[in-house]
User: Fold this.
Amino acid sequence: MNATDLWSLAVIVGLAFVTVLTRSFFFISSKSWHLPHCAQRGLQYAPIAALSAVVIPEIITVQGELVSTWQDARLYAAVAGAAAYFWRRDVLITILGGMAVYLPLHLGLGW
Amino acid sequence: MFFRPTLYRRTEYWQGLRDLAPQAPGIAAWGLMTGVAMVKSGMSVFEAVAMTMLVFAGSSQLAAIPLLVAGAPAWVILATGFCVNLRFVVFSLHLRPYLMHLPRWQRMCHGYFTADITYVLFTRHYPHPANTDDERTGQEAYLAGNYFLNWTSWIVASLLGVGLANLIPPEWGLGFAGILCLLGIQCSLASSRMRMLSAAVAGVAAVVAYHLPLKLNIVVAIAVAVILCLTVEKFRPAPKVAA
Assistant:
């Protein structure tokens, strides 16, 4: 059983505020206002950058060290997952396709 | 709000709910997996339940988990969650004319519950904001009915996942399903070459800067990717992309 700590709970409450803030961003204030052009352009690139920054190290590194072996189930699962996404354009298919590769390699071969 | 009779007594409410129904199994499967991933990545059951009930944003939850478990500082986790959620900022700009007639707290409640699929279905069903009070309430009812089913599917499945997680041995590595989910969302955002560049730069930068303290590599990677893409845009006019 993992332990609960107050700090994590505070962060979780903070994340809930982030959800409210981002989802209602432009209708919190009654005043009409415009986003500067460069911020608007930045909105195009920041979400995918944030996801990539979290995801890529989790796939190709072990605690920040690049994987030094090809016998790592995560590499193949990620490739399979991405291929599955572009095949069906469906996030659920990505997970299922990736795990279908990950589990046999990870549990069967110990990669 | 989905519990207000003025909304749920209207046919639009049930129309919105029916329109979401085909998506519900997919949302539930994703919620189930998020529930399992939270516990399997080292969060306590109480934390996982709190996160499910309060945060209600799959991608920012999944992105926050590795950071939370690694003990990254709160502002880094919140900033990452904010960046992952930036697409909602774009959605809110679009939804503004549909909701501005309501009091602020109601607007914010509707905003909180309106996740990706509800946004897509709502704006597809109503390409233009209403002109009369009756139509406005109808649109509000559609929105509420739609997100009510979305929220229910997500919450019930997530809690089920949290409950089931302890029955699954940790060696199975099911937490990796959370990463695959983020990978899928990442692929869905890769709608232009510039966005792919942003993803590639951020990925490389996050690995290169991995050993920065406080998980700052995430923030650095986002900043480097966005600045680089904006710079490239200056020299090469940007192609049109979907928001």
User: Anything to note?
Assistant: Chain A touches chain B through 72 residues (CB under 8 Å). Helices of chain A lie at 6-23, 37-60, 73-88, 91-108. The mean pLDDT of chain A is 88.
